[in-house]
Amino acid sequence: MRGNSLETGHRIKRGRMNSPMKFDFSEKPAVQRVKVLFPLPLFKAYDYLAPTEDAPAPGSFVRAPFGPREIVGVVWPEPADASVPVEKLKAIADVIDAPPLAAGMVDFIAWAARYTMFPAGSVLRMTMRSGDGLSAPRAQTGYVRTGDAPARLTPQRQSVLDAAGADPRTAADLAAAAGVSDGVVRGLSRAGALRAVEIDPDPPFDPPDLDANGPDLSEDQQYAADGLTAPIREGRHQALLIDGVTGSGKTEVYLEAVAAALARDETVQALILIPEIALTAPFLKRVEERFNAAPAPWHSEMTSAARRRTWRRVAEGQARLVVGARSALFLPFPNLKLIVVDEEHDGAYKQEDGVIYHARDLAVARGARAGFPVILASATPSLESVVNIDEGRYGAVGLPSRFADAAMPDIGLVDMREDPPEAGAWLSPSLVAEVNANLSAGEQSLLFLNRRGYAPLTLCRRCGHKMTAPDSDTMLVEHRFENRLVCHHTGFSMEKPEACPNCNAVGSLSPCGPGIERVAEEARERWPDAAIGVLSSDTAPGARAVREILASMGDGEIDILIATQIAAKGHHFPDLTLVGVVDADLGLAGGDLRAAERTYQLLAQVTGRAGRAEKPGRALLQTYQPDAAVFQALKNCDRNAFLAAEAEGRKRAGFPPYGRLAAILLRGRNEPALHDAARALRAAAPAGDGIEVLGPARAPIYRLRGEARMRFLVKARRDVSIQAYLDDWLPKVKMPASVRRVVDIDPYSFL
Ligand SMILES: [Zn+2]
User: How many A from CA of 321 to the centre of ligand 1?
Assistant: First the structure.
């Protein structure tokens, strides 16, 4: 092991030689114990020694020996544990050159770990995903044009000179832009046409100009903005919902709150969370226009260098406004004073992998603990937020009318029992007639179906065999474009076989039901002269492809767009006047407790795409259950009646937000061991006042990726700490090595 057991009075071996700060214990050391938390699945921090004189402050990033290696962790402000004798402790190797985590951040990490019941080290790991931000900055060499022409000018050299501008770019960057090798760039430098300059690998973000392009707010919007800025000016916590229909100008209004927060002093930082990475680029542009400065972005599609820049600049307090996906909540802000959660109802805020958490709920908790306001924005707020307002925990500001007086779309229901499509088709005669009318009027239509691929089920006509994934109890979805059968849960895919694997009949496998590729096929047959676009994550892989299709839709180059929910949010299509929902019932099937709520939110959002400019819009929902409360509410534009009915049902069942839920999933390949463990866990469940343990039961998808899965659902009264109950219960049963146990507080997925 690489060094550092501390022997009093002796020199100890060092960690890395190039680290910026060293402890020297060669004189009589005065040492103290400090706790270090590592970004590993560990519930506790460990004791180390540090010199009392130079003891790293709580929150400092330090390198310390752990097992056979040295790992970077964080000095954790917990009282040291005196039970381990000093002689047994190792010393911290060195302190990393990065700003220490602020006390508020450390507090948030510790709290989030307790709340989610994940190890504190796992939560810390989310904060330390820095894209190399914990290594010291390495200056890079960039090149700028000198203005002198080289003696010899080849076409390759010319393309490099064309790519080079006033801002320095690296040789690799220039070479890639010009499509030549690095050598051409260096040759131009030797020839005097380019000059080498040092460039900052993490260039600072431009400071936001708060008065740059203040919007022209309507009276309603100004009133809402004033409501949002009051707690900011007073510097107190308040969760506030800004509730306004699509197109009512919510963004302009909450950007005023952001401006008010940033205006408090020059160190204040603000964070805007958005749910969808595909929307980041247009949204960033909008924020940039408002403040005349690009905000710092944060999402999973960024390069490591871009992540590093944002991470370091946030940690230094230099990046004052961050726009990011849910994980931006764990960036190391030293002075965060406002969080905005846009589209707060969106399911994408729930992280289901690794540490399971809901970013909206954690954002509110963060603001409450640190004493700053949190703004939630939505056209279709979650029932949780609505109840929080009704019960006085959250404040609310409304934006009743659509900006610029655009009318809300007219929503009609197509009863598919009365008005069915022809055999083999998916669009009802009424919907077809509306699309025809739109084509004649030169207006755009959107056909919405939230299902990727060609057909959700492939069935053998001869023996009835359903094509399922080999290692999962999931149906394979045909993707005809790629001629593959795909599992949407695990990503497994296979070529579509010629013969049924069960009865060997050739050519008997038939698609059942529509995915968007199949609706596109029908549309192309019906409207051969129309420009038809198809938009889903398969047909347009990557944020850029999505943007391109959305841009051509926005420019009016597409007559009919056939899309999944990727097109539901945040886009402005001025000539879109008809939205047809191919299967409105889709989200209600196999429903969990939020199925109707999610259906309402999604359909309200997608139908809200119609008629956002001067032209009025209309929407048609194809359904086999037109009397369902959710469709009646959409048709009658009566959100409150729907929410009241939903709330009543949840209250009766003791479900959130009127009660608490936790899901416990046990999974493993050894089925007998799994079932034994589930039974043992059940038997150990203590009786608790206001607590009900349901299960174990087979998960709806029992086999997934080769593992069998058993579920418990724990229901608690709202005044009962579900975490305290689980802390008491779960340690009573040690899981066998083959069984993994995952706790999900406030579950959203029940599969
Ligand atoms: Zn068959």
Answer: 58
